[in-house]
Amino acid sequence: MFDNKNIIYLITKRKTFRFYIFAQTIDLYMNFFKFIFSKLFLIQLILAVALFVILCFVTLQWLDSTTNHDQRIVVPSLSKKTLDEVKQILEEKELRYEVQDSANFDPAYPRYSVIEQNPAAGNSVKENRKIYVTLNPSGYRKIEIPQDVIQKTRRQVEPKLLALGFKIGSITYKPNIAEDMVLELRHKGKRVQPGTKLMKTSTIDLVLGDGKGATINLSDDN
């Protein structure tokens, strides 16, 4: 059994050990803080940060040179250019192109020239971007004359033909009980039937009923 002296000795020894551990811990923290605020640590920290920045800069430069990272190209204007010119211009810019279905003929543009492009000129795109171009057709497309234009009034027929892109030419009257009813359609002096296809902007002459039985020609003989 332990006597009082032994117990006191053990307690004192334990307290001494704890104090020793505490003192060592305090000393460790003190040395750590001294090192952090020392010139040596600050120099090493500055060198590490500088090295990190340099590595990041070199890496970004390498990416730019190998992958053209974020390189932008201004889209050139292709308006009124032929397909051969488009190919040459875009190849020099390292861009591609694709021809879309031709739109309606536009007399303000040369035939087979670019009338539309997407993206539009002036936009910034990445290398190898595809530019979509629409070419002007060789001429106006042919449009079918509607079926329901005979035995209809002039007031009904004219807006319908104009909306399709035709032009109204001379107006000729012939004997018929129905006044201003469309009896015939003519193009370049020849009679045309509904369903006939004519070039857009073609001129169509109307032959109407006079409502009186007399023939009156209102066209300009000149």
UniProtKB/TrEMBL annotation:
<feature type="domain" description="PASTA">
    <location>
        <begin position="69"/>
        <end position="137"/>
    </location>
</feature>
<dbReference type="InterPro" id="IPR005543">
    <property type="entry name" value="PASTA_dom"/>
</dbReference>
<dbReference type="Pfam" id="PF03793">
    <property type="entry name" value="PASTA"/>
</dbReference>
<keyword id="KW-1133">Transmembrane helix</keyword>
<keyword id="KW-0812">Transmembrane</keyword>
<keyword id="KW-0472">Membrane</keyword>
<protein>
    <submittedName>
        <fullName>PASTA domain-containing protein</fullName>
    </submittedName>
</protein>
<feature type="transmembrane region" description="Helical">
    <location>
        <begin position="40"/>
        <end position="63"/>
    </location>
</feature>
